[in-house]
Each structure stands twice: as C-alpha cells, then as structure tokens.
Amino acid sequence: MRAFIAIELPNEIRDSLNGIQEKLKACKADVRWVAPENIHLTLKFLGEVNEEQLSKVKAIMETIAGQKKIFNIRLASVGAFPNMNYPRVIWAGVDNGGKEAEELACALEEKIEKIGIPKEERAFSSHITIGRIRSNLGKDRLTAGLKQPENYFKDSVHEFSVNKLTLFKSTLTPKGPIYEIVKEANLTTA
Ligand code: ATP
Ligand code: MG
After folding, report:
1. Per residue in 121-174, pLDDT tens?
2. How many angstroms separate the CA atoms of 175 and 10, rounded?
3. What is the pTM of this model?
4. Domain span at residue 71?
5. What CATH number does residue 101 fall under?
6. Ligand 1 pocket check for 4: Cβ under 6 Å
7. CA dist., res. 35 & res. 131, Å (int)
8. Fewer beta carbons within 10 angstroms: which end of the chain, N or C?
9. In whole angstroms, how far apart are CA 182 and each of 42, 47, 54, 61, 108?
C-alpha cells in the first residue's frame, strides 16, 4: 500500500486553514486545493510498502514516539515553494515547533532508511501543504494574494499540541486521495 507518516491536525486548525484557502480562491488561480479533511503535516512519505516493511515502520514509530515529548506547533505564515513569485505548492508555515517536527522527521527517516525505504533527496522543511498549482493561469493574482499575509493569521493564534504520530494509507483516486489511519503512536508526557 501507499503510505506516509504525518502529524494530524485538530479540526479547528483545519477549519482555519480552509478559511485561508477560501480567501486565496478569490485570486482565481488554477490551484488544486487540498480537501480540508486531508490537510496534515507530512513527516515521512513512504510510498509503496509491503506488509513486512509496514510492520517494521510501525515498530519504528513506537520507538521514536516513545523518545519524544509532546510539543506545540504554532502556524505563522502562508508561503509557496519554490517561492511566492513562482508558486508550485502553497503552504502554511510552522513557527514554533518546527524544530521538534524536523527532529521527528529526521529520526524517522534515519531508521526507515535501514529497512530499505530511500531517504528524501531534499532536506526536511516543516510545512503544511494547502494547495498545488496546476497551471500558470492567474499566477500573478495568486502571487499578489500570497504577499498579503496580514490577512491570514492576524486575529487568532493557531497553536496546537502534537501528541502522536499517525501512519496513513493513501489511495489515489481521480477525485483526489483518500487517507485512512493505519496506526497511531503516542509521544511521551514525561
Ligand atoms: P495527490 O498525489 O493525488 O496530489 P497527495 O499528494 O495528497 O495526493 P500522496 O501522493 O499519497 O497524496 O502523498 C501523501 C503525502 O506525502 C502528501 O503530504 C504529499 O505531499 C507527500 N508526498 C508525496 N510524495 C512525496 C515525495 N516524493 N516526497 C515527499 N513527500 C511526498
Ligand atoms: Mg502526491
């Protein structure tokens, strides 16, 4: 199955990210917006894994989660990869908690490489994808919209506690991916 490890987001955070998506939709650019219920923070994309790899990944998740404390993530910004002038991926950026998420991602990656799942070529950078650009249609309007971050996280603090790792199964369909929770591993309280 196709799988990945992520940080699940609370409903109210997904709702506010959906609010940002709605604002950016006004730019009328050609964007495939991530379905609000699917918004997450990817720690490690696994791709196709077999049953044997899957059980090893689950054990690795338990080990790593057992070594890391619960922490908070605060979202602070909206941006784009590779940059706002040439947006391909639109994301919400992590302010507080980015370092902890990165530590988790690196710890997972290191152990997971040993079971034959290749490392990412690019360095991990904490972000939450909310949209992917399909074509250049309306690109300049989108760039302008993205450059008004004061609209996005102005009135409230978007902060949540990360207390577990979640392994998702991803089924790609023409209507978009379907994610299902396969396993959760709790971070420690101590
Ligand atoms: P779709 O592929 O239909 O756009 P999706 O990207 O949401 O949907 P998946 O491709 O299964 O679904 O990816 C699951 C998660 O893993 C997403 O957060 C995606 O951004 C991330 N991901 C996918 N491919 C990679 C990759 N090669 N490297 C790093 N992360 C990836
Ligand atoms: Mg994908």
Report:
1. 999 999 999 999 999 999 999 999 998 866 676 556 789 999 999 999 999 999
2. 24
3. 0.94
4. 2-186
5. 3.90.1140.10
6. yes
7. 9
8. C
9. 15, 14, 10, 12, 17
